[in-house]
Amino acid sequence: MALTDTSIKRLKPKASRYLVSDGRGLSLEILPSGSRSWRYRYRFNGKLEKVSLGHYPAFSLQAARTKRDEYAEMLAHGKSPARHKQAEKFAVAHTTTMFEFGERYFKEIIERDCKDPRPMRRYLDNEIYPRLAEKAVRDIAPAEVQSIVFRKRDGGAPSSAGQIRNLLKRMFEYAIANGLVTVNPALSIPMRFITQARPRTRALSPDEIRIYLQTLYQSNIRRQFKLALHQILLTLVRKSELIFARWEHVDFEAGEWQIPAENSKTGVPHIVYLSHQSAQIFHELHGLAGGSPWVIPSRSSLSKPFCTTALNQALGGVSFSIKPFTIHDMRRTGSTLLHEKGFPSDVIEKALNHTIGGVRGVYNKAQYANQRQEMLQHWADYIDGLANEKKILFGNFGRAS
Question: In terms of pTM, does the model score above 0.70?
Answer without folding.
Answer: no
